TrEMBL record:
UniProt: substrate binding residues: 6-7, 152
Organism name: Anoxybacteroides rupiense
GO molecular function: isopentenyl-diphosphate delta-isomerase activity
Domain of life: Bacteria
Protein name: Isopentenyl-diphosphate delta-isomerase
Annotated positions binding Mg(2+): 153
Length: 342
C-alpha cells in the first residue's frame, strides 16, 4: 500500500480504537502526606531530558508527516499549540521526506510555525547516518527520535522482516548526528535488557513507548481480515516499563509514554521514574475532533492539575516528584516482582 495513504489510515484507526486503560497507571496509588508544607505557587514544572532543558514535563509525541496536505495541516496545528503552551513536539517518521523532497513541507512547517521551540526529528532504526542528519537539518531539530517498531512491522504484510544491525546503526548515529538521540518504542514498551544495551552504546534518553495506549498491532489487525491476533496484547505496560528502564539503566533520562490520558497518569509516570511524559493519540484526537482552543485548554488544565497534585504530594520540582512514596498493586506489582524489582 502507498505509504501516505497508510499513514492517513493509521490516524483514522488510532483515533477510533477503543481505549482500555491497560497502561498500568490504575495500579499506582500515592501515599497521602498530611503536611505538604508548600503552596501551589512553589511548584516548578521545568525538567531536564539529557542535556535539554524543558519548561514543561509534557510534550506532543511523534505522529504524522509524509502524508500530503492533511498531515501538513495536522503538524501545523499541533506546532501552533506546542508553541503557545511552551511544550516540546516530535514530528512523525521523516523517512518518506528523506527519500522524496516533495514530502518535506509537512515537516518543515513545524519549525516555521515555532522557530524557537524544542522540536524532535524522527526516523527509524533502519536509517543511515546521512539520512538521520537530513531529518535533523530539515526541521533544525533539538533532538532526534529513533523509533523501534519491530512488532508493528511484523504485523504489516508489507512490513520489514529483517531487524539485524539496528543497535550498531543507532551507535553510529549517536556519535555522528550532533543532537541528543532519543530511542523510542511505539506502544510495545521497553525492557531493562533493551535499555541496558542502549545505555552501553552511549544513548542518553529513551522513551518507553509502553503498552496500554495506541496499539499498532490492533490497528494493523483491524485493517485486514487475516489477523495476527497473538500480537494484540503483546508488550510491556507503560507503568512497568518506566520502572524497568529507570531502575536498571540509571544514567538514562526516561520519557514515559503510551496510554497517558490524564494529568494524573502523567504525574504517576514521573513518580515511577520518568523525567518527561509524551502524549500522542489523545492530543491528536482532541485537536481533530474539537479544535485548537480545546487542546490548548486541555494542556493548560493539565499544567494546573500538575500543580495541584504536586502540592498535595509536597513536591516542588519534577525531580522531587520522581521520589515520592507510592504503592503498586495488581498486574504491575506482579510483573515487577517477577522481573526482580522491589
Ligand atoms: C504514532 N507513533 C509514531 N511514533 C514514531 O516514532 N514515529 C511515527 O511516525 C509515529 N506515527 C504515529 C502515528 C499515529 C497516528 C499515532 C497515534 C502514533 C507512536 C507515538 O509516538 C507513541 O509512541 C504511541 O502512539 C503511544 O502513545 P499514545 O498514543 O498512547 O499517547
Amino acid at each position: 500500500m502507498e505509504r501516505g495513504r497508510r499513514k492517513l489510515e493509521h490516524i483514522v484507526h488510532a483515533l477510533n480504537l477503543e481505549q482500555k486503560r491497560e497502561a498500568g497507571f490504575d495500579d499506582i496509588v500515592f501515599v497521602h502526606q498530611s503536611l505538604p508544607d508548600i503552596g501551589t505557587n512553589d511548584v516548578n514544572l521545568s525538567t531536564t531530558l539529557g542535556e535539554l532543558s524543558l519548561s514543561s514535563p509534557l510534550f506532543v509525541n511523534a505522529m504524522t508527516g509524509g502524508g500530503g496536505q492533511p498531515t501538513l495541516e495536522i503538524n501545523k496545528g499541533l506546532a501552533e499549540i506546542a508553541k503557545e503552551c511552551g511544550i516540546a513536539m516530535a514530528v512523525g517518521s521523516q523517512m518518506a521526506a528523506v527519500k522524496d523532497a516533495k514530502e518535506r513541507q509537512s515537516f518543515e512547517i513545524v519549525r516555521r510555525v515555532n522557530p524557537t521551540g524544542v522540536v524532535f526529528a524522527n526516523i527509524g532504526s533502519e536509517a543511515t547516518v546521512d539520512e538521520a542528519k537530513q531529518a535533523v537539518e530539515m526541521i533544525e531539530a533539538n533532538g532526534l527520535q529513533i523509533h523501534l517498531n519491530s512488532v508493528q512491522e511484523l504485523v504489516m504484510p508489507e512490513g520489514d522482516r529483517n531487524f539485524i544491525g539496528a543497535l550498531r546503526r543507532i551507535e553510529r548515529m549517536v556519535h555522528a548526528v550532533g543532537v541528543p538521540i532519543i530511542v523510542k518504542e511505539v506502544g510495545f514498551g521497553m525492557s531493562k535488557e533493551t535499555a541496558q544495551k542502549l545505555e552501553e552504546i552511549g544513548v542518553t534518553i529513551v522513551d518507553v513507548g509502553g503498552f496500554g495506549g495506541t496499539n499498532f498491532a490492533r490497528i494493523e489487525n483491524n485493517r485486514r481480515p487475516t489477523s495476527l491476533s497473538y500480537f494484540n496484547d503483546w508488550g510491556i505496560s507503560t507503568a512497568a516499563s518506566i520502572v524497568e528502564v529507570s531502575q536498571s539503566a540509571t544514567s538514562l533520562s526516561v520519557i514515559g509514554s503510551g496510554g497517558v490520558r490524564s494529568a494524573f497518569d502523567a504525574v504517576k509516570a514521573i513518580a515511577l521514574g520518568a523525567q518527561v511524559v509524551g502524549v500522542a493519540q489523545l492530543f491528536l484526537k482532541v485537536w481533530m475532533e474539537q479544535g485548537t482552543e480545546s487542546l490548548l485548554e486541555l494542556i493548560h488544565e493539565w499544567h494546573k492539575d500538575f500543580r495541584l497534585l504536586m502540592t498535595a504530594l509536597g513536591t516542588r520540582t519534577i525531580e522531587e516528584l520522581r521520589h515520592v512514596p507510592l504503592v503498586i498493586y495488581g498486574q504491575t506489582h506482579h510483573w515487577l516482582n517477577e522481573r526482580g524489582f522491589d
